[in-house]
Write a structure and sequence with these properties.
Radius of gyration: 21 Å
Helix content: 25-40%
Largest sheet: 8 strands, mixed
Oligomer: single chain
CATH topology: Alkaline Phosphatase, subunit A
CATH superfamily: Alkaline Phosphatase, subunit A
Number of helices: 12
CATH class: Alpha Beta
Strand order of the largest sheet: 5-4-7-1-9-11-2-12
CATH architecture: 3-Layer(aba) Sandwich
Structural class: alpha/beta
């Protein structure tokens, strides 16, 4: 293929809901993302196929929904022989490059990437020594998970800030060097994923701006979602939101640096190019006293997805619902490469010509647990069509939800009884696409395999994978400069 292929860079954040963005009217400052919208095409109704890091990223890379790969948890690994869209680029002479986080588990830390120029910051094995995690996370050791994240929030230094700076510097360095092959580059940050700690000056700026979500005190009726409810003081909820906004502005700044470097790189090569921004899922950030992801409410399931470059319409908004699984087919067609052999995604290339994309069914699926430590016992399915979204709970009859997300973006009115015809229409789509039985079977198989992999790692001595990123983090052995503790933390629990 040679130099004729376009250079492509995907900039990815973790846990950024687009509702906290300037381009969606929020008061968080995202000038680089806003500019990308003006100069490119924004898919304003983009969704994750699973509101959790690993299954979402695997679905994006393979173009396959979780019920086909069996990847539903943070402890699941992508099969080594499952091709990603990166393999197709590599086959056609591209240099496929990963800078930063992708949360691969196991010995294969590439999955189609020929080069990794900045390591991961999350565990890449099943038996990570606690001492190693403690070294890299310090005081923040327990704040990376959904429940620990609600212990404290504030302003100051954090491991996330240091890691994202490291990834950005590695990417900029790579883009300042000459490369013969066409480039397919992923730059993947950890922010604005919790811990909820942002840079001090930005935290203080947003602490004076943020307000409690309208649904902060709303009750969660769905049994499957009650375990995500965490009692939080108003002071903590505001602090978490301020820190989250600060981290988003930080990520926006990193994106600006990388986009500028990528633009200079492409100009020097006289190459056609595309820059795409996406996140894997969102963050509820206090809605219904929920923090983090793992539900199909809008702030957890909706993602930003914006592309700009040659032959891509400027200032164009696509309002047709789309999925992160559509990225692989879209990038391959943009590069003139044969489409993926098997995929649940669709090419969105038509949108780049200032057109709407053909409507296709956009859905997501998730396996819930009664507790974090128990096997999956509930299958949740979401389908989005036009302005309606339907959330189905397979094991719990009578708890399904129907929302008009245009008229009710905070999803405070369940229309399931009031709009029975629309509910029946969406239920038929659910029946056509849900794969609950298959998902539960695969999950049970993976639960068993997990024990095998853990035992094998211990026996073979490969638990401490050398590609796990480490750094001296003496700074993080103390609390952030401004620390707001959640005074209701001890009362957290399902539905309380």
């Amino acid at each position: 293929m040679g130099k004729a292929g376009p250079d492509i860079l995907v900039f990815m954040t973790d846990q950024h809901t687009p509702y906290f963005s300037g381009f969606m009217g929020h008061n968080v400052d995202t000038p680089n993302m806003d500019r990308l919208c003006r100069e490119g095409t924004w898919f304003s109704q983009a969704y994750t196929p699973c509101p959790l890091c690993v299954p979402s990223r695997v679905a994006m890379l393979t173009g396959l929904r979780p019920a086909r790969t069996g990847v539903f948890t943070l402890m699941d690994a992508m099969p080594d022989l499952t091709p990603t869209f990166l393999h197709y680029f590599a086959e056609q002479g591209y240099e496929t490059v990963l800078a930063g986080r992708m949360h691969f588990l196991g010995r294969d830390q590439r999955h189609g990437f020929l080069r990794r120029i900045a390591g991961d910051t999350t565990p890449v094995t099943w038996n990570v020594p606690k001492a190693l995690l403690s070294e890299t996370r310090g005081t923040f050791m327990n704040n990376y998970g959904e429940y620990g994240a609600t212990s404290f929030a504030g302003g100051g230094g954090s491991p996330v800030e240091v890691y994202d700076r490291y990834v950005t510097d590695a990417a900029v360095k790579w883009l300042r060097e000459p490369h013969e092959k066409p480039q397919m580059i992923f730059v993947s940050l950890y922010g604005p994923h919790f811990p909820y700690v942002g840079r001090k000056d930005l935290y203080l700026k947003y602490r004076s701006r943020v307000k409690l979500p309208p649904s902060f005190k709303d009750r969660v009726n769905a049994e499957a979602y009650k375990r995500h409810v965490q009692a939080a003081s108003e002071e903590f909820a505001l602090a978490a939101q301020a820190a989250y906004c600060a981290m988003i502005e930080e990520a926006d700044g990193y994106m600006g640096e990388i986009r500028n470097a990528f633009s200079d790189f492409c100009v020097s090569r006289h190459s056609k190019s595309m820059f795409l921004y996406v996140s894997d899922h969102g963050d509820q950030c206090g809605d219904r006293s929920m923090f983090g992801k793992s539900t199909f409410y809008e702030k957890s399931a909706r993602i930003p997805m914006i592309a700009a470059g040659n032959d891509i319409a400027a200032d164009h908004i696509v309002k047709t619902p789309v999925s992160i699984m559509d990225i692989g087919p879209t990038l391959l067609e943009y590069a003139g490469i044969t489409s993926m052999d098997h995929t649940d995604g669709f090419s969105l290339l038509e949108a780049f010509g200032n057109r709407e994309v053909p409507e296709h069914t956009v859905y997501g699926e998730f396996l819930e647990r009664e507790k974090m430590s128990t096997p999956a016992d509930r299958y949740c399915f979401m389908v989005r069509k036009n302005n309606y979204k339907y959330i189905s709970f397979r094991e719990e009859k009578g708890q399904d939800m129907l929302f008009d997300v245009d008229a009710d973006p905070d999803e405070r009115e369940n229309l399931i009884l009031r709009e029975k015809d629309k509910a029946e229409e969406m239920q038929e789509i659910v029946k056509q696409y849900e794969m609950g039985s298959r998902a539960v079977e695969l999950e049970a198989e993976h639960e068993r395999n997990l024990k095998l992999w853990q035992a094998y790692e211990k026996a073979s001595g490969t638990a401490d994978n050398e590609e796990l990123w480490t750094v001296d983090t003496a700074l993080f052995r103390t609390e952030p400069e401004i620390c707001v503790r959640n005074t209701k933390k001890e009362y957290r629990g399902a539905g309380k």
